[in-house]
Specification:
This protein is α/β, with parallel strands linked by helices. Among the domains are: 34-238, P-loop containing nucleotide triphosphate hydrolases (Rossmann fold, 3-Layer(aba) Sandwich), CATH 3.40.50; 249-416, P-loop containing nucleotide triphosphate hydrolases (Rossmann fold), CATH 3.40.50. The chain contains 19 helices and 14 strands. The protein has helices at residues 42-51, 58-68, 83-95, 114-127, 144-153, 162-170, 187-192, 196-204, 221-230, 260-273, 286-298, 312-324, 357-364, 385-395, 407-420, 425-443, 476-481, 507-510, 525-532; strands at 73-76, 107-110, 135-138, 157-160, 181-185, 211-216, 235-238, 249-255, 279-282, 303-306, 329-332, 347-350, 374-380, 400-403. A seven-stranded parallel sheet has the order 3-4-2-5-6-1-7. It starts with 41 loop residues before the first helix and ends with a helix.
């Protein structure tokens, strides 16, 4: 924000003008400029200078002094304006004095994705190399044990994604009672990914006297409600209108037929016609990311996919190769749309029109960074009209649109060429279904309605069938050669009628045995009563 413009916003801080200092001799001392005027220490200024930065961006020039005053802040700026340095630099300055305790970090930075968390960790290492601050990175896809060992030693700066942070807290490996500074970066992305309930839970576990810094590119109503709940008299720093695109990015719509092959062909033609050095291709679905990456590789382009289903080591290696220039084309989902600092991206291709207009702003913000010029293309089909209207309404301008020459003719010729080659998988499935139906009709013909088949004469009465022959037993030779044959039971002779076996008994069993004498019955009163009873 220029210094000669005085805003009437009550939430904006206007620093008082100070007189120009002078030496005893009366010679004017020039005011410090650049980062030296923001109140940073000499070690920090040295690290910033070695990083190649001399002039702070607007969000840095306005936000760093407010953070150093230990006030809550809401920083709103378009992507690629240096929001990461606007909170990492003052945090290093504030945390330079003090010491962390085991499992009790002094500051906490919440990031929506692993890539953003790793990028912030790199910024701390770059700017804090002359300060003895410890740092830990808690993200998914890495070992719990390594992270626990770092927490046990005590960390000054804890950078984490909400899910992994709550996992450590639930396991009793982390206490948040000593957090002095909380940073919620890319708050609108937190909302899109469903992390707002986790952020609210984390904020309730932090001390009430903490300093909270909110940074976002947009400010939807849900984020506004969150800031009103957890921030204390925040200062709002807004250097650009929410959801605006940089003026140094050339944006264009490419109209393509509603055909997957046509979109892939249009992408390949745009890459060849514009002599693209490197680019990021954004897709809405993870499956399309893999398909487009394989298609580019098949046609000789150096491309690789990047989405949330990949292993963390693969994602990190892919980003490193793209930053180093070894990889030319990165096909990614919206996991790479927010906050990733890749300075030299020349082109952005939106293979799919984003469903949310804010995502378009973040996607094309990967190009045109640090004052460079960039180019952004979006492939749109006739079904994407409502998405284009929402994007144009959000950014406040009409996007130029054109068609690629010869693309429609190539699409019309494509189905004929596919039929001669046997068609795609869907055509083969449909053809297979028709053939099956035709075969069924051939095997079981259906007679037309109204036609009656001629009556056939009844067959003559068959003679009484002869009795079935007795079953033939298998030979022992065949049974022996069977590998796992069960042994055959010997055939039992037929059961004969019961015979008198007394003649076969020994003589001593046939001798008569005298029975014992039975005692006489005693007739008493009971007997008389029974006789007397009627």
């Amino acid at each position: 924000m220029p210094g000669d413009e005085k805003s009437q916003n009550k939430n904006e801080i206007l620093l008082p003008e100070e007189p120009v200092p002078s030496d005893p001799a009366g010679t004017l001392v020039p005011e410090p400029s650049g980062f030296a005027s923001l109140g940073l220490s000499a070690d920090l200024l040295k690290a910033v200078e070695q990083s190649g930065y001399t002039v702070p961006t607007p969000i840095q020039a306005q936000g760093i002094p407010i953070v150093l005053q230990r006030k809550d802040i809401i920083g709103i700026a378009q992507t690629g304006t240096g929001k990461t340095a606007s909170f990492t630099l003052p945090m290093i300055e504030l945390l330079a004095r003090g010491r962390a305790k085991a499992r009790m970090p002094r500051s906490l930075i919440l990031e929506p994705t692993r890539e953003l968390a790793a990028q912030v960790a790199e910024s701390f290492e770059k700017y804090g190399k002359y300060n003895k601050l410890s740092m830990a990175l808690l993200i998914g896809g890495t070992s719990f044990d390594d992270q626990d060992r770092k927490l046990d030693r005590g960390v000054d700066v804890l950078i984490a994604t909400p899910g992994r942070l709550l996992d450590h807290f639930g396991r009793g490996k982390l206490m948040l009672s000593q957090v002095q500074i909380l940073v919620v970066d890319e708050a609108d992305r937190m909302l899109d990914m469903g992390f707002i309930p986790d952020v609210e839970e984390i904020c309730k576990k932090l001390p009430f006297t903490r300093q909270t810094l909110f940074y976002s590119a947009t400010m939807p109503p849900e984020i506004q409600r969150l800031t009103e709940k957890f921030l204390h008299n925040p200062v709002r720093v807004e250097v650009a209108r929410p959801a605006t695109t940089a003026a140094n990015i050339t944006q264009e719509l490419i109209q393509v037929p509603a055909n997957d092959w046509a979109k892939r062909e249009a992408l390949r033609r745009l890459i060849r016609d514009n002599a693209v050095k490197n680019a990021i291709v954004f897709c809405n679905r993870k499956t399309d990311v893999d398909i487009v990456a394989k298609s580019l590789q098949k046609h000789g382009f150096n491309a690789a996919p990047l989405h949330g289903d990949l292993d963390q080591s693969v994602r990190t290696r892919t980003l490193d190769t793209f930053r180093a220039g070894t990889l030319d084309f990165l096909v990614a989902s919206d996991v790479a749309a927010r906050g990733l600092d890749i300075p030299a991206v020349s082109h952005i291709f939106n293979y799919d029109a984003p469903h949310h207009p804010d995502d378009y702003v973040h996607r094309i913000g990967r190009t045109g960074r640090a004052g460079r010029s960039g180019h952004a293309y979006m492939l749109v089909t006739p079904r994407d009209g409502k998405y284009v209207e929402a994007i144009e309404r959000l950014i406040g301008k009409k996007l130029e649109s054109r068609k690629l020459e010869g693309l429609s003719e190539a699409v019309e010729a494509r189905p004929q060429r596919d039929e001669r080659r046997g068609g795609g998988s869907r055509d083969r499935d449909r053809g297979r279904g028709r053939n099956n139906e035709r075969d069924r009709k051939r095997e079981y013909p259906i007679k037309p309605h109204g036609q009656v088949a001629p009556m056939e004469p009844a067959p003559p009465a068959a003679a009484k069938p002869a009795p079935a022959p007795a079953p033939v037993q298998r030979s022992d030779h065949r049974q022996d050669h069977r590998p796992h044959a069960k042994p055959q039971r010997p055939q039992q002779p037929p059961r004969e009628e019961a015979q008198d076996t007394r003649s076969q008994l020994p003589a001593f069993l046939l001798r008569p045995v005298p029975l014992p004498k039975q005692p006489e019955k005693v007739v008493g009163r009971a007997k008389k009563k029974e006789d007397a009873a009627p």
